[in-house]
Design goal:
single chain; about 300 residues; alpha/beta; Rossmann fold; L-2-Hydroxyisocaproate Dehydrogenase, Chain A, domain 2; 2 domains; 6-stranded parallel β-sheet; 3-stranded antiparallel β-sheet; 14 strands; binds 1,4-dihydronicotinamide adenine dinucleotide; binds pyruvic acid; L-lactate dehydrogenase; allosteric enzyme; NAD; cytoplasm; NAD(P)-bd_dom_sf
Length: about 300
């Protein structure tokens, strides 16, 4: 599958690198306002191809995106230290107003995979600008937060993060919801497994993991200016699920009805395959998680309505 990436900055180029290392794409085309940057990234990433999958990596313009099965949108600006994702909305919405039309002109059949922040709202704006059905405009949503949750739980429990089944739902941002009540180690509740291992999930452990997930971007941005490896791997995971028509369950963001909030984009566990998102799972949550998810969806709905697109 040919994959386009608009925005060859840290996120876009990390996604391309991750696709080269894990497979899933047969061609990758990097497009950026800064053409010199796109060419340099394509060349640098191309040098990893002998160690990875058989992929051709090029830089190009919008016309070179013709035939793409997926186009990743990672263009625009990122957070400065202390800034929230929502504060990027005006600047990135302006970028997307020009970019989405260009992408649709050359590849109206592509699935659009949005990474730019605030990703839930940028995904919904992209859906409205493109006129595509909801399931074909996928925001990376909480795929990264879910990875952070699984990683931290895996470290606490002493097991591989891949054996931790836990999800982060709602906004990719400050109002996100860690679904503790449904989290499993293998097929055992994490609370029960943690007790068996002599590493109980105390209030202190729970608060530390919650902060570790919810504040990860702020901490990393404070330390190195931006985050890119985790999301690059997450985007490559979504692309692989589409390319292989996997039917993988991933927490991604598409516009749907969430707990009675209509036409809102936020993350739930959803089934991803060749046609994009084809189904969603209704999570089993306790009362406080349900209320937090509804509040997150309502906040996103108010914000997207205020944009007026
Ligand atoms: N969804 C997620 O989990 C995550 C999302 N992000 C978001 O991804 C976005 C990109 O972040 P970085 O790659 O770190 O930023 P960056 O500044 O390294 O790269 C952005 C690129 O977009 C390009 N660009 C800007 N306007 C453009 C236009 N009109 N057309 C084409 N290219 C254009 C710039 O030239 C630049 O190369 C940010 O909004 C950031 O907040 C970052 C990390 C995680
Ligand atoms: C920047 C961002 O959205 C993240 O690392 O979660």
């Amino acid at each position: 599958m040919k994959v386009g990436i608009v925005g060859a900055g840290m996120v876009g180029s990390s996604a391309a690198f991750a696709m080269v290392m894990r497979g899933g794409a047969s061609r990758i085309v990097l497009v950026d306002l800064d053409e010199k940057r796109a060419r340099a990234e394509a060349e640098d990433i191309g040098h990893a191809v002998p160690f990875g999958a058989a992929v051709r990596v090029d830089a190009g313009g919008y016309d070179d995106l013709r035939g793409c099965g997926v186009v990743v949108l990672a263009c625009g600006v990122g957070q400065k230290p202390g800034e929230t994702r929502l504060q990027l909305l005006g600047r990135n919405a302006a970028v997307f107003r020009s970019v989405v039309g260009e992408v649709m002109r050359v590849c109206p059949e592509a699935i659009l995979l949005v990474a730019s922040n605030p990703v839930d709202i940028m995904g919904q704006i992209t859906q409205r600008l493109s006129g595509l059905p909801a399931g074909r405009v996928i925001g990376s949503g909480t795929i990264l937060d879910t990875a952070r949750f699984r990683w931290l739980l895996g470290r606490h429990l002493g097991i591989a993060p891949r054996s931790v089944h836990g999800y982060v739902l709602g906004e990719h941002g400050d109002s996100e919801v860690l679904a503790w009540s449904a989290a499993r180690a293998g097929n055992v509740s994490v609370g029960s497994f943690a007790a068996q291992m002599g590493a109980p999930i105390t209030d202190e452990v729970r608060a530390r993991i919650d902060t570790g997930v919810r504040r990860a971007a702020y901490t990393i941005i404070e330390g190195k200016g931006a985050t890119w490896y985790g999301i690059g791997a997450g985007l490559a995971r979504i692309v692989a699920a589409i390319a292989a028509d996997e039917g993988a369950v991933l927490t991604v963001s598409v516009a749907s009805e969430v707990l009675g909030v209509r036409d809102v984009a936020c993350s739930l566990p959803r089934v991803v395959g060749a046609e994009g998102v084809v189904a969603e799972l209704v999570p089993e949550l306790d009362d406080s998680e349900t209320e937090a998810l509804r509040a997150s969806a309502e906040m996103l709905k108010r914000t997207v309505e205020a944009v007026g697109m």
